[in-house]
Amino acid sequence: MDQPVAIGAHNFASIERVVFGQAAAGVITAEAARLGARRVFVVASRTLRMQTGVIRAIEAALGERHAATFDGIPQHTTRTGVARATAAALAAEADLVVAVGGGSVIDASKMLTLCMRHGMTDEHLEALDRFEVKLGDDGKPVRPKFDGPVVRMIAVPSTLNGGEFNGGCLVTDERRRLKQTFFHPLMMPRTIVLDPALTLHTPESLWQGSATRALDHAIEALLSTTPTPMADAVVLDGIARMARALPAWRAQPDSLAARADCQVASWLCSFGLSSRGPQGGVMMGPSHAIGHVLGGSCGVPHYYCTPVMMPAILRWSEPATASRQRNLAQALGRPEMAAADAFAELVKTLGLPATLRDVGVGEDQFEMIARTSMRELFIHGNARRIAGPADVLEILRLAA
User: Domain range for residue 328?
Assistant: First the structure.
């Protein structure tokens, strides 16, 4: 009997260019000229601005094109931080945003381009809820229709999580202690600059933890309810590259070649994530959903959620994803091991936390996490269906 025909769709990102292995200051200046920008607003990591010469070099290279710099984005990208950045960008009459830093800075920059378009600058961004991507009764995302940003951005990541390769972002509502998802194709950067020298200033724990976030994007693409052949092929290559590049970096932390290899691996790992769009694409899964709750409600750093949760998710999902997990173990360089064990072994070699207990989350919080996770956008993106809070509790207990 003939095999069933696979069906699906792969969306291609609206990113125009990825420039890799080159110094950020020169590339940003050239891209600003190419894009016709005259008022460049830089959103920077405060650490990079205050403790290194990276941001000063970018400002100097931009010269008269530099309009202003903002460095007040806190971890987990709060509404208040986005509101202040938006007000500063509007005051500077920005016509291009350049984000230099980690995931919080890049997410905030995506969001401020949307807030600029719709004139939202009040402290709590009261009008923001109408733009949120929500979970429908059928378990599918409901994306409201609205005008996308006119002012676009360039992203210069200092970490490896890869969130710059998609048009979505997470913003924390501090008052309700929850993370919200927003998406528009035009929130995606026009250019991404991968400068390995810039990452020399990234703390080791953040670099390692963000590498697991990149792997998370790749693994969730493999376990997705909506995989595509192209995403499968590219993310498996990204996983294999990261599995080789991380040990090379650990052996020689100052090696720009090893850091550049990690950056390219992160880029490839994001290929499923970057295919998300209004018409679907590769759906992320429970690691994202549960991770949003761990970060927004429990204060767990974003880059520790994956090392803690992914082995448990792999074990729970194995009955529905056995062949894909064999491919994953092969890509991780551990074909003789179960994929969950291979990933856990990688976490161990990196010295990252491995259990919920390690990050200060106790069993008394599990019920709340399970209930809240079921309201998260990506909870239904897993090939083994998560039917309710009881399934999330099983996963949490595997990660305890």
Answer: 203-398
* Contact indicator for 193, 156 with CB cutoff of 8 Å: yes
Are 226 and 372 in the same domain? yes
pLDDT tens readout for residues 142-199: 888 999 999 999 999 999 999 999 999 989 888 888 888 899 999 999 999 999 999 9
How does pLDDT run across 249-285, given as a tens digit for each residue?
999 999 999 999 999 999 999 998 888 665 667 889 9
Question: pLDDT tens for residues 85-118?
Answer: 999 999 999 999 999 999 999 999 999 999 999 9
Q: If you average pLDDT over residues 284-309, what whole number do you get?
A: 92
Average confidence score pLDDT of the chain = 94
Say which CATH number the domain at 297 has.
1.20.1090.10
Is 6 part of a structural domain of the chain?
Answer: no
What total of structural domains would you count in the chain? 2
> For residue 269, is it within any domain?
yes
pLDDT at 134: 85
305 and 158 in a common domain = no
Q: What is the pLDDT of residue 1?
A: 65
CATH number at residue 168: 3.40.50.1970
Last residue of a domain, one of 162, 197, 232: 197
* 9 occurs within a structural domain: no
